[in-house]
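Risk register update: the risk of archive-format incompatibility is retired. Evidence:
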Amino acid sequence: MKQTYRVEKSDKQLANLLLIDFEKDNEIISLVFDTGASISVLSESAARKFQSKSNDKEISGKGTAGNQMSANLHSVTNIKLGDFLINELDVVVVDDAALCFGVDQEGNELSCDGFIGWSFISKFSWNYDHVSRTLHFGHSKENKSLNNLEDWDNMPIVKVKHNDSHLFFGFDTGHTESVFSKYMYNRIDDTIMSTDVFSGLDGDSEEKVKILKEFNFEINNKEVELKHISVIDRDLFPSSRDNISGLLGYDVLQGKSWLFDYPNRHFEIL
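Archived output:
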């Protein structure tokens, strides 16, 4: 990797997700590292702190809950991530309430200032060390020998190995748990019926799901085991592919060190 920059994991928490701090004029906001957000998102409060300016444009799309939503497009300038200066960053600004996701089992509020999204994440190689809680990032040297990421398709697409065959998943580090979708719904056995709540910027949606007791696969020869996975009978995001098996969330990375290098189409759990 060429010149690298270092940033520590934020002291703020939102479930099991990775939050990192951005700074401007001594103001600090904490954003979720979110490969599933096509563009970065700020709450109105965070946008005011960072003096965002409206581009007089509106974008729309569907969120995690499957509902249509729209929001205003803004830009923020001269913000820092560690020692790295971001001259300009396009963001969507939403109501503070849209980034409040209730409380956890201990009664702690689940909220954040926003998400740093794909339009920024995709430019760099990211290496997270779980022990030191440190994220290193920078422009990587070209190396296509370990390619296991597909081209972006409304989500980064990761190829995994399961029972000597390959499956394709969207990779969404802004989603706390992995979820399987329509492609897997009628292909799996040993499930029970239940309901699950899907939460996102577009609100909450309670839906019927199958619960898969466990699922084992490999990412770049590293074994991963998921338990009690919700399987929903719909697509979780638009894709040109008809074989997307679902979303891999941050539960795949929890408690682990990892490397995510989209310019070289490489993802690895270390």
